[in-house]
């Protein structure tokens, strides 16, 4: 298992992350990694 870190996010940010879930079991880490991957892909298209 990888090292885990605690990050602070506002309640509104947490709510928005929950809304981005593809499945109910998707973790915040999975959501964040998917978002980072999408942004990276967009940047590399330029």
TrEMBL record:
Source domain of life: Archaea
Name of one Pfam family that matches: DUF7557
Protein name (Swiss-Prot/TrEMBL): CopG family DNA-binding protein
Keyword DNA-binding in record: yes
InterPro entries assigned: DUF7557
Alphabetically ordered keywords of this record: DNA-binding
GO-annotated molecular function: DNA binding
